[in-house]
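User: Second chain of the day. Same drill as before.
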Amino acid sequence: MRNHYGSATLLKERSAAKAGAFFMHREPTLGVRNHNPLNIRYVATNKWLGLSKTTPNVGGFCKFDCMDYGLRAALLLLLTYIRKRGCTTPRQIITRWAPPTENNTELYIQCVCGRADVSPEHPLPTEGSAFNRFVIAMARQESGIRLTENDIERVRKTFNIH
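Assistant: Same format as last time:
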């Protein structure tokens, strides 16, 4: 079963029953409802493309018009961390994204790096499978969304993100 918010494929399960059960028994997460897979915090000065004009801020987090815009913002923000903020390793990225004052950052690092099959201590490339898997694992950690590498590549291509 495929479930779409905007045009990004969000669930990819082995059976329709498992995929249906995901939403039948649980309230959609804030990230799903806001089309914000990595739960980007709302900052009024950030004028993200596709940010909702009527309700851009829901509970301190950005709300986008569709999942593609939320994923676009997440990719751009992660690339900024790597290229301009000096956060080149998964540990550095996650520590900034989910600081210990608000999260169990060490557990977050272990979960994301384990799912993505990347080392927390080695520099993360800015494109390719390792980067894609990292974004996918962060989306799952933040909002339970199950993206695919094709979703990441499609959004990168659609919005010309290098």
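Residues 1-25 have pLDDT under 50 and may be disordered.

User: Great, on to the next one.
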